[in-house]
Amino acid sequence: MSGPRYTELAESLPATVPFVGPETQERARGRPFRARLGANENLFGTSPRAVEAMRRAAAEVWMYGDAQSHDLRQALAARMGVDMQNVMVGGGIDGLLGSLVRLTVEPGDAVVTSDGAYPTFNYHVNGFGGVLHKVPYRDDHEDPDALIAKAAETGAKLIYLSNPDNPMGSWHDAARIQAMIEAVPEGSLLILDEAYLEFAPAGTAPTIDPDDPRVIRMRTFSKAYGMAGARVGYAVAHPALIGSFNKVRDHFGMSRASQEGSLAALDDGAWLDATLARVSAARERIAGIARDNGLVPLPSAANFVSIDCGRDGEFARAVLAALVERDVFVRMPFVPPGDRCIRVSAGPEEALQVFADEFPGALQAARAPAG
Amino acid sequence: MSGPRYTELAESLPATVPFVGPETQERARGRPFRARLGANENLFGTSPRAVEAMRRAAAEVWMYGDAQSHDLRQALAARMGVDMQNVMVGGGIDGLLGSLVRLTVEPGDAVVTSDGAYPTFNYHVNGFGGVLHKVPYRDDHEDPDALIAKAAETGAKLIYLSNPDNPMGSWHDAARIQAMIEAVPEGSLLILDEAYLEFAPAGTAPTIDPDDPRVIRMRTFSKAYGMAGARVGYAVAHPALIGSFNKVRDHFGMSRASQEGSLAALDDGAWLDATLARVSAARERIAGIARDNGLVPLPSAANFVSIDCGRDGEFARAVLAALVERDVFVRMPFVPPGDRCIRVSAGPEEALQVFADEFPGALQAARAPAG
C-alpha cells in the first residue's frame, strides 16, 4: 500500500505557512496575548450594522450563499462607478490572489514583486511553480520603476505592488501609480493590492479605468471594514479577466453570512469614517510611543506603524521576541533593511497602553547581552 | 495593450459553473421560489446552539479565524477516534476536493468517477487538466467493481465515490466499501465522499483506519448539520496526505464564525438526532407524493429522494421545468438513465405541501404535447 501520487510540483513544495497565527502562538505559549497588535486586524471592530446583518444571517446558513455574490458585486460596482462585470468577490484577497496566480502562472513563469512584500502572494506563486524575481525596496517604499524594469527584463506575467505598502506602511500617490500602469510591459499584468487603501490620504488610488487590461485591483473587507474573519475580498478589472475567475473559482465558496455582513458594512459610511479617524489617532499614538523610546516611527498610510528599532534585523527580532514574551502580539518585516523595524497595528488605547507599558522593557531586554 | 497571458490550461477551460444557484434562477425569473427543494440543503435548519455561537462570533469577525482550525479539528478527531493529524478542515467538501485535485492531478492524468456523479468534482479535475474516465451507474448505484477496474485499466490517480450517492440517494454497506478500499490499485487514491453519511443507516461507513493511505474521506457541516452557507467541510486520511494540504491551502481562509458554529453544532447531538428523524419522515412524505402520482420513488439514504418520472430524460426535464415554472426549485440527475428522475430535497411539511400541490400539474404539463 503506497500513498497517493502527487504532482511533480506538489512533491517539490514544502508544507509551509505564510504566517503563524496568534492562536497558534497562544497555544504554544500556554497563555493568551494581552494586546493583539500583530496581524493588522482592525481592533476598532466591525460596523454594528454589519454585525447585526451577520447575526440575522446566522439562522439562514442552512442555505448556500448566492454563488454570484450578486447583490454585493452590484453594490461594489455602483460605489466604484464600474459595471458588475468588472467585479469579482472571493475569499479575501488571499483567495483571489490564489485564483489569479492559478490562471496565469505555470512552472517556470516569471513573476515580479518586492523583496519583503506580501508573503502570501509569494506562497501562491511558489505553489504554482512560478519563479519570483524580487527587487529591493527603495527608502522603505516599493519601487515602481524597478518593478517595471524587472518585469520587462524577465518577461514577467505578473507584477505585484501593494499601495499603501505592507509591511512598511509607505505609499505612492495616484499619479505615480498611474504612471506605473502606463508602463506595464506588453503581456504583463499589474496586481495592485489596495488592501489598506481606505486608510490612505485622498489621492492615493488612481481613477479606475474598467477597460484597462493592464491592471487588476484587489480590495478587502478585512481591514478598514473590520471583517478579517469573514473572508471577503474583491477584485476589480477588465471584464475578460474578471470572467476568467469563473474557470477556476469555488462558485459556492462564499459564506452566506459574510456576504450579508459585507453588504451592510459597505452601507455604513459613518462607521467607516469613525474607524478611519480612530486609526489615524492610533497611528499618532504608536508614533508617540516610538518617540518616547527614542525611536523613529515610519510614516504610514495603513492601519499600522512600522517602528525603526535603530539597529539590525537581529536586534528587532529580539525586541519582537521580548514583546511576545510580555504578551504583546506584534509582527515585523522579514527582509533587510525593513527587518530593522517592528510593525504595530492600530488599536484602542487599552491595547496600545499595554504596548506602551511593555515596549521599554522589551527594548531593554533586547539590548542586554544574552546571559 | 493586451490582456494578461493565461496558462495554456486556463486558456482551454470554459467559464462554467457546476450548478446554477437558486438565487440566480430567482433573479432570472423575477420572483422567488415558494419551495427551495433543489440543492439538498437542510431545510430543518441549524442547531440553535450553532446559530447562537455564530451570533456571538459575529462581533469578533474583526479577527482572522484560527489558521489551524485547532479546536474544531480536535473535536472532530476525538469524535472519530483519530488523531488531529488525520483531519483537515476546509471550505466545504468543494474546497477540499479542489485542493486534493491540485495536489495530485496534472494535465493528462487519469481520474475515475461515475457518469452522472458529483459535477463539482469533475469541474476540479477538468480545471487541473485531468482526464475523466466515467463508468456507468448499475441499477442506480455507483459501481465499486467497475470503478476499481477502470482505475486499474487507466492507471488513475484518483477514484471518486460518494456513499450515500448523490444524485440517486442509493448506498452501499460498509463491507462493500471496505472491500473497495482493499481493492484500490497501487498508486490510486479513493475519495470517499460521505457528505450524506449521517442520513444513512448504521453500518454504511466502514471503520476509519487512520493509517490507510488508500482512502480519504470527505465529510461536511453543509448537510445533516444544516450549515451549507457556512462553508465547513473536513477530510480524514493518513497524516502524510492530510499534511500535504498545507502546501496549497489558503491558511487563513476559514471564516471565524463558521468555525465557532461548527464546533457548537458538533456538540448538539440532540438537534442532530431530531434532524435525522425529520429527514427520515420527509423522505417518506416525498415517496408518498411520488406514489400518489403513480410514480416510483427511489430508496434513499440521503436527505433527498429521486423520483422516477417514468419516461426518459426529456420528459423529466419537462417536469422539472414545469415545477420551476410553478415556483418549486428542484434539480435532477444530468445523465441517463438517472435523468429519468427528478431529485427533491427533504424539508418541512409546508415546503413539501407546495411540491405536493404543484407536482400533478407539472406532470400534466410535461405530458401535454407542446402547443
CATH topology annotation of the largest domain in chain A? Aspartate Aminotransferase, domain 2
Approximate helicity band of chain A: 40-55%
- What's the oligomerization state? homodimer
Largest interface, Cβ cutoff 8 Å = A-B, 91 and 91 residues
Rg of chain A over CA atoms, rounded to whole Å, is 21 Å
Low confidence ranges of chain A: none
Which helices and strands occur, and which strands form pairs?
Two copies of one chain form a homodimer.
Chain A: H1 8-12, H2 22-29, E1 35-36, H3 48-58, H4 70-80, E2 87-90, H5 92-104, E3 110-114, H6 119-127, E4 131-135, H7 144-154, E5 158-162, H8 174-182, E6 189-193, E7 215-220, E8 233-236, H9 239-244, H10 256-266, H11 269-292, E9 296-297, E10 304-308, H12 313-325, E11 328-329, E12 341-345, H13 349-367
Parallel strand pairs in A: 1-11, 3-4, 3-5, 5-6, 6-7
Antiparallel strand pairs in A: 2-8, 7-8, 9-10, 10-12
Helix pairs in contact in A: 3-10, 4-10, 5-6, 11-13, 12-13
List the defining traits of the structure above.
3-stranded antiparallel β-sheet, Aspartate Aminotransferase, domain 1, 13 helices, alpha/beta, 371 residues, Aspartate Aminotransferase, domain 2, 7-stranded mixed β-sheet, homodimer, 2 domains
